[in-house]
Amino acid sequence: MDLDALIQHFFETEDPTTLTAADYELGLERLKLGFGLEREPGRKFALWTLLDALGAAPLPAEAFAKEPALKAAAEDYLSAAFRLERFGDEPA
Known about the structure:
Order of helices and strands: HHHHH
Helix content: 55-70%
Number of helices: 5
Largest sheet: none
Radius of gyration: 14 Å
Strand content: under 5%
Shape: globular
Number of strands: 0
């Protein structure tokens, strides 16, 4: 999935910096709806990661309750993101 295409599809703009607060909330609701309706696992996971980047993702246990592999992938993603955020500037 292409990030620019997702932004265009759900937020109806090519430039998210132009969104008003109301437009952002509407786009976020569309994204949440799209996530809830998506059945293809790869696309569902991609939508979840975008929701996470926007601070609106449900917890993996809630988001992927019936999909153990996606739940594990989401937990791994969050763990890696946390480590990167916390230790990303430290030398290896």
